[in-house]
Amino acid sequence: MSHSPNINGQSFRIDHSHVRARVGATIAVFAIAFVLVIYAQYASSRQADLIRMLGLFLGCFALIPLVHSVTETWFQSRVFRNISFFS
């Protein structure tokens, strides 16, 4: 957990454990996608396109939880900052 100052100079905790978990999952999915794309280079021509498309889809799909996590943390800090400003 890290401390972030708000407008009044007080600090509050931001829990980043869900970000770490999502980053780990994203790295794992990227590794699987990378292996699929590399395997597609050596597969028969009939299967290569399908395997390559699956690998690229997984690579793009892996970014969704990471982007969601970053925007959620940013939004959370903005909401806490505004709540403490008015209290």
H/E element string? Answer: EEHHH
How many beta-strand segments? 2
- Into which percent range does the helicity of residues fall? over 70%
Strand content: 5-15%
Distance between the termini: 23 Å
What is the overall pLDDT average? 73
- Global shape: elongated
The radius of gyration is 20 Å
Largest sheet composition: 2 strands, antiparallel
Summarize the structure.
This protein is mainly alpha-helical and about 90 residues long.
What can you see in these coordinates?
- The protein has helices spanning 17-42, 45-61, 63-86; strands at 2-5, 11-14.
- It is 77% helix and 9% strand.
- It has 87 residues and is mainly α.
- Helix 1 (17-42) runs antiparallel to helix 2 and helix 1 (17-42) runs antiparallel to helix 3.
- Strands 1-2 form a two-stranded antiparallel ribbon.
- The protein has three helices and two strands; from the N terminus they run E-E-H-H-H.
- The protein has a domain at 35-75.
